Structures are given as structure tokens and as C-alpha cells.
Amino acid sequence: MQSTVSVLMAAIVFIVEFFSGILSSASDREPAKPDKPDKPAVSSTLTVFSRNDEFSDLVGKYQPEGARLNFVSEYIDFEDYDDVLEYGWRGQTVDIIICDSAEICRFLDSVLPMKDIGISEAEVSGLFSFNTESGRNSSGELCALPVVNAPGVFLYKRSAAKKLFGTDDPETVQSHISDWKKFLETAELARSKGITMTTTFSFGTVPGLTGEEQRQLTELTEAYNYHQGRNATKDKYYEGHVTLQDVNLGIALPKGLSKLEVGCNWGQKTVDVLAARSMFDGFVGKNTEALTQMVANNRLIAEYSKACRDELKYGCVFASLSADDAIGCRVRFHSPVTAAALWSGEKGRIDCGLAIIDTVPDEQFKGRWLPRLVNFYTDEAVIVLEMVQNQWRATRHRHRMGRPLMEPLIWNATSDKPFGRSRLKKAIRALIDDYVRIVANATVALEFDTTPQKYLLGVTDEQYDTIMNDKFKTYVGSLLTATSNPETGENPLFGQLAQGSLAPHVEKMRMTATQFAAATGLTVTDVGVINDANPTSSDAILAQSQTLVLMAQQLNTGNGDALRTIAQMAQAIARSVTLDELTEEERDVIAHFKNPAMPSVAVTADAAIKIATARQEFC
After folding, report:
1. Residues 314, 421: contact at Cβ < 8 Å?
2. pLDDT tens-digit profile of 61-103?
3. Contacts for 525 with CB less than 8 Å, ≥ 6 apart
């Protein structure tokens, strides 16, 4: 082994694994293997080997001038680090290797101690002990140091600690969560007593699931938890609950107004105006009597309008299907607030999904609800997960569909975002923030404009005290009198500062509204800008709405495909057959939507008359 090699470790494993996962995203690529030539000669340049550029980016900020450092970034399997240490990398001597703490233990007895390269124990005494202790060899010598460190804290309720351990002493609590094994054991104890250790949604290990199903369920919960913060932000802007604290730049508006909430329904308008133009009207085909009944039994037309708003708000919405003895097939819609799915690029559809069906109130946190019943959708079954006595239990219901009984309705999907993008994306939210600031500025300016500043010069001390004792009465009084100043013999001088104007605020508001309308496809009238000139013609109004109509047609096209798939699966479930066993009439159904241009009755009648005149067979 090269005796001149020292090894540094990454203290937080998941950070390195995260970057390594990016570099190895092409899983079919064969990992690079180091060559095994004769050991290279020692070089005056220090070579640092790492799986990614994180360390080189960090060192680059502090690298002294004239330092001779050679950074090599190459993803390899951690088993190959032995060869890198022994033989170098492609003819280069490797002096420092960056790897995570899971890999470092194999090298600690084969590398130089830090004291031999000039780093004393005193110099690292300020580091966290868990970093330095995990970097020691079998003789207790420090041989590795952390590259990155992200310590965290564990917050706990004292009442919960007393219930679990009989005390809320921090050292006692620390002893119960000092490593992952103890943490999980404590979590099991806490769950048995109805206490939740973490705030994120998690199933843990569910008895009755296969290894692949457990993996899918874990990934689904991670995806679900990951998006809840973003979903809450979108919901906040949709409901218009944006306060000045969220948008204040800290320049013109005082911090004392941080709790001021400016009513703004632009987020709701962005979603609802487009959703209102997507009007599902049932299915058409050769024989759709049974399908029409299914639509009526599930109130699918009304439910679609609600689902469409969620789709535009969050980017997608999920429809789940299940057998129902009363109506044949039950169709439910779930927003990303209560559901999640994993996309399969190979299959061109979702690979699996979950939906929260029922919740119960959290006994510890008022206003918080916990899942009690969750459906887990796979290619072969619907697995019902039910919380019974603080333990998840799985009940398997097999099906023959060959795919999950779940279908997403997706808005504005791209190749890298198969589950779509929200209408309330970051750029739109920034314009809403701008509007809130403008209204707040205008409100403050109006207060000053209502009471323009006045001044009175040359008054006596007694007159000054009288005025200051009741400034408001003096300000609004209809008569203001004053005697001459006996000390100077001059009469007081009264004046008023120029009154401010709201015109700049109004112009800025109009400009922001115009930008918002352009970004969302809404008309400026939709966002509150009224044209004071001559009334707009009907053709001009239609031209302004054309962008929105095109968006609605795009929305109907995507949702029409999803609804067709839902209709086919619903018919197969009702008849207990596979998709391949459906008749041609059952497969050839199309979702029908009303005209998104929403023409008036007069316009529709006029068009029909013109068509009938040109085509005699039209009736």
C-alpha cells in the first residue's frame, strides 16, 4: 500500500451518496476500472481523487496561490478504492482520496496518521467528536478528517420524553437515540404509546409485503414527503394567504407591518379561469350506455371539475379505481396532497402509486391529521394498508389489469418532469409577490397622502407644547391661531408640504398586472385592469382569450387520453376482465369536452345556419 496516502472521509454519508448518485445516474454504464501498471514515481504535485467535484469546488475557494493540486473526479465502485490506493489512477500517484464514512474503515490501518503530515490533535479538537472518532485506526491514531459536516439537532417534547423514559433530561434522551439502532428501538416504543418520533409520513417495515413492494412503498413515501412543502406553498398562493412578511424587501416598508395580509386572488384566477374552460361532458362511442351510467354513479362530471383545479394547482392529479358491488366500479380523484406515484419511463406510465383514503386526528398536535387507511397500487394488486393498534397491516387484493389501478391527469408535462408543472410556478408566484408589495406600498402612501405634513415655524415654547399635546386636534382644527413670538417679535409661519400621489403605484400595478396576464394567458381584465378608453369590441375580447383557449385545448387533449384509459379500466373492472378482453366498442371510447372558446348561443346558432346553408345534408 502507498504509505504516502492519507484519506479524508465525508462525515455525512448521504451528501456524498447524493452527488455520487447523480454521476452514476446512467446505471447501464460500466463503472470505470483503474489500470494496474507499475507503481508511479512520487510527484511534487498533490493528486486528490474523488467521486465528484464537491471537494475541488470547496478547496478552490481557499487554495493558496502557487499550490500544485491535481483534482481527479471519477465515479468508481468503492471496492475499487483498494486498487486506487495501491496502484494510483491511470498512471497518477494518488495522495488524497475522498470517500464516505462507510468506506473509510477499510483503509484506516493502511494510511498515514494525520500527525505524520503535520496535523496535530490540538488542531482538530474543535471538531465534533463523532467525526474524529470514526476516523481513527485500530491503534487510536487519527487517520481521516471530515470534508463536509452537517450536524443537526433533535427536538423533543418534554411531556413525551417523560411518558417514554420517565424523565425529560437531555442526556437521558440522548442515550436513547445515540445511534440508528437505538433510534429505531425508541421509535417502536414511542409508536406503541401513540407518540410520533418524526413529522414525516412513514410506514417502516410492513409485514406481508415482498422486498420489491417494500422498496416501492419506501420510495413512494419519500416522494410524497418531498413534495408536501412545495404543495403547501402552492396552496398558500392559491388561497391568497400571502403576508407582507413573505414578500417584504425591507427597504420601503417597515417590519412592523409584517403581518399585514393583502388580499390577492391572482393565484386562484390563474387556476380557475383555465379549469373553467375544460368542461368534461361524458364519453362518446358506439355503445356507451353502461359507461354513461358509470359516469352518473360516480358523479364524474362534477368530480372532474374539482380534479382539474387540483391538476392545474399542483401539476397533476391521480384517479384511482376499485371494484364496487353497488355500481360496478368506483372512481376517486386524489390530489398530490393525499397521493403520490412513481413514473416508469420504460412503461410510459406510472409504475406504482399510493393514495391516502382515510385519516384520523392526531392526539398530540391539534389540527393535524394522520393517515389511517392507505391504498398501495401495483401492477398485480391493490394493497390496503391499515393502521391497527399503531401498526400498519397489509391486505392484498389481486387484479388482472397488468398495471396499477391508478392513472394520472397531468398538466404541461416535459421529458424531465413527467408528472407535469403547476400553473403556480415560481415565476408566477414572484409576480404575485410583486403585486402584494405594490398594494402594501400604496396603502402606506395613501395614509400619508390623506394627512399631508404641515409645519408651523416661529412659535413660543408654550405654543409648541400646546400643539404637541394634541397634534391631531391641531391638525384637523378648522381654525389655527397664534400670537407673535415675544422673543423675536415675528409672527409664526404656517406651511404644508407637497401632497404625495398614488399615480406611480397605480402605474406599477398596471404594469405588473400586464406581465401577469402575459405569463398566465389571462386577459388584463381578469386581473383587475380596466380599460378606460372606448369599450373593447367582441372580436378584440375573443383575440385576448385565444391563448387561454389554446391552453384549454391542450389541457383537454391530455386529460382526454387519461379519461379514456380510466374508462377502459372501469369497464374491465365492472366486467371482471382484462383490458385485452374488452370488446372493440368498449375500447373505442372518447372523452368529450365542450368548446373551450365558450361561444354564446347566438354565435353557435349563426355558425350552424351558415354550415347548413353550405352543406345541404347538415341538420
Report:
1. no
2. 677 676 677 777 666 665 566 666 666 666 667 778 787 666 6
3. 531, 544
